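Workshop exercise sheet. Pairs work together: one partner reads the sequence aloud, the other fills in the structure field after running the prediction. Swap roles for the next sheet.
Pair: D.N. / O.F.
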Amino acid sequence: CMEDIIEIQNLIYEIRGQRVMLDKDLARLYEVETRSLNQAVKRNIRRFPDDFMFQLTKEEAKSLVSQNVIPSMQYFGGTLPYAFTEQGVSMLSSVLHSDCAIDINISIMRTFVEMRKFALSQPDTTNQIMELRKTMLLYMDKNDKRVDTIMEALNALLVKPPEPRRLIGFR
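Structure field:
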């Protein structure tokens, strides 16, 4: 199980200040073609608002390649990929109905939770993030879009996971 989490962590990217997974990587994990995954999403597009899924711009795709996160633009197969946030990945389970999709979806959700727990379990990291935010606010031009992106990423790291809910009903 830990091997699955490590593999999945390597497929989670930071784009637009959010942790996301790309359609091609999700399709590989779910053992479906990227085209099939995207068709299922498009048939159920109301389930995927902009904060659940968005299409990368050419600049964002090139940035992933230039950072050596993605080997080349050919990796995307000639189209700009879709990026799914944690909520979007969760929603995929409602449109993909195979047993494999259910198992993979559970692993992905656990990975997102573990990443959040790890970030929050590091008190020094949290303090460093808070100090970095203060410094950026003091010295940076607040109209710089790069600052907004960095601030969003820092804020996302500080969000605590929701408390586990008590189950109601029969077990």
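Discussion prompt: The first helix runs from residue 2 to 9. What would you look at next?
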